[in-house]
Amino acid sequence: MSPTTSAEVFAHAQSVIPGGVNSPVRAFGAVGGTPLFVASASGAHVTDVDGRTYVDLVGSWGPALLGHARPEVVAAVQEAASRGLGFGAPTTTEVELVDEIRYRVPAAESVRLVSTGTEATMTALRLARAFTGRDLVVKFAGCYHGHVDALLAQAGSGVATLALPDSAGVSTATAAETIVVPYNDVDALETVFVAHGDRIAAVVTEAAPANMGVVPPLPGFNAALRRITLEHGALLVQDEVLTGFRVGYSGWWGLEGLREGWAPDLFTFGKVIGGGLPVAAVGGRRDVMAQLAPSGPVYQAGTLSGNPVATAAGLATLRLADAGVYATVDAASARLRGAVTTALAAEGVPHAVQWAGNLFSIMFGAEAATNGAQDYATVLSTESFRYAPFFHALLEAGVYAPPSPYEAWFVSAAHDDEALGAIEAALPQAARAASQA
Ligand code: PMP
């Protein structure tokens, strides 16, 4: 008989797939227990193979801005699929998707579509190195940019969840070309540039970090990155794979750079721009992007890049993601943040709900409650052990929160009063579990 429960599928999966999953955070490593094997998802809900339905706060780790399986998006995918699944030749849809991205983020003057965020940041680095003729790259501790060799040092996301130091298999030479600086620390960055400024190709940063839990940039931090990189002739790469078109119509840049009148040299995007299918992008200054083959000498390619079905999903998603959608998601996020704080306060659990736009996460402990966490070292010193019982109490009550304290909670436009009410109803019990940890 073929396996029918999540536990049965997971047991088999572990014998044929490393760790039983195709991306580490899915394995419930930080919270223990059996991952849900999802059978279907619709709106604000996911249903597992055991037949249980949960209010979903993972949102496919970001893409599900509109909620799952929004009918117009599914229809666009079906229509595209009916015309063929992929051609390895250019299509109109991918140009339309790039136009939509550029309309929202005009500083992305020229855009190349790829399939994953990892490819996007990897390409951004190669471009920066070629354009500047320099080798060193600066990243911030706790920021995650995909599993690019050069960017795995002190990375967040699954690397933090599994308490891995960095990654094995990255050559010493590659690791030596990456300089890691504490997040939100302008002085530390200045010091690095004083020492190595003429060898630094790029500073890569999450526009607003959400892979070490949510750690918003302090006011002026991103602008300082812009100033320092300009002073030293390095490029600024703003990774908006997660924030792009999720925290607002023009991503994090729309909340900050657009208002302040500056832009990074390169952006990376992903997640929402594929609407749940594999699409990501690197875009930015026309002169830098022109270095990419075939117009320039920097090689980059992809059999599935700009895939017609995937780009149809992304285009339909972005076209539906109007100001009303962002207002709805922002309001849902604010309501949930308030509910989390109310529930935890009622149980006397010291904590901070840290947020950036509509992304948020919970940091436990008195230190976080008092001062918040502005860098990775502080995040790692929080009482993250309270998260597993909190998570499992929510799961038991039918709420699927991210299975790691270091990931953001993703709400969607489909999180209506009923879905939010179900989460609110589950929170007191979860807060009690957190207090007893
Ligand atoms: N950058 C950021 C900010 C991300 O959050 C992620 C994925 N969570 C990536 C890059 C990598 O994207 P992908 O998983 O599509 O390779």
From TrEMBL:
Entry keyword annotation includes Thylakoid: no
Pathway the protein takes part in: Porphyrin-containing compound metabolism; protoporphyrin-IX biosynthesis; 5-aminolevulinate from L-glutamyl-tRNA(Glu): step 2/2
Record PTM N6-(pyridoxal phosphate)lysine, positions in chain: 271
Single annotated GO MF: glutamate-1-semialdehyde 2,1-aminomutase activity
Class of enzymatic activity (EC top level): isomerase
Catalytic reaction annotation: (S)-4-amino-5-oxopentanoate = 5-aminolevulinate
Cofactor: pyridoxal 5'-phosphate
Listed PROSITE patterns: AA_TRANSFER_CLASS_3
Localization per record: Cytoplasm
Main location: cytoplasm
InterPro entries, sorted: 4pyrrol_synth_GluAld_NH2Trfase (IPR004639), Aminotrans_3 (IPR005814), Aminotrans_3_PPA_site (IPR049704), PyrdxlP-dep_Trfase (IPR015424), PyrdxlP-dep_Trfase_major (IPR015421), PyrdxlP-dep_Trfase_small (IPR015422)
PANTHER family, sorted: GLUTAMATE-1-SEMIALDEHYDE 2,1-AMINOMUTASE (PTHR43713), GLUTAMATE-1-SEMIALDEHYDE 2,1-AMINOMUTASE 1, CHLOROPLASTIC-RELATED (PTHR43713:SF3)
Identification of the protein by name: Glutamate-1-semialdehyde 2,1-aminomutase
Species of origin: Cellulomonas edaphi
Gene symbol of the encoding locus: hemL
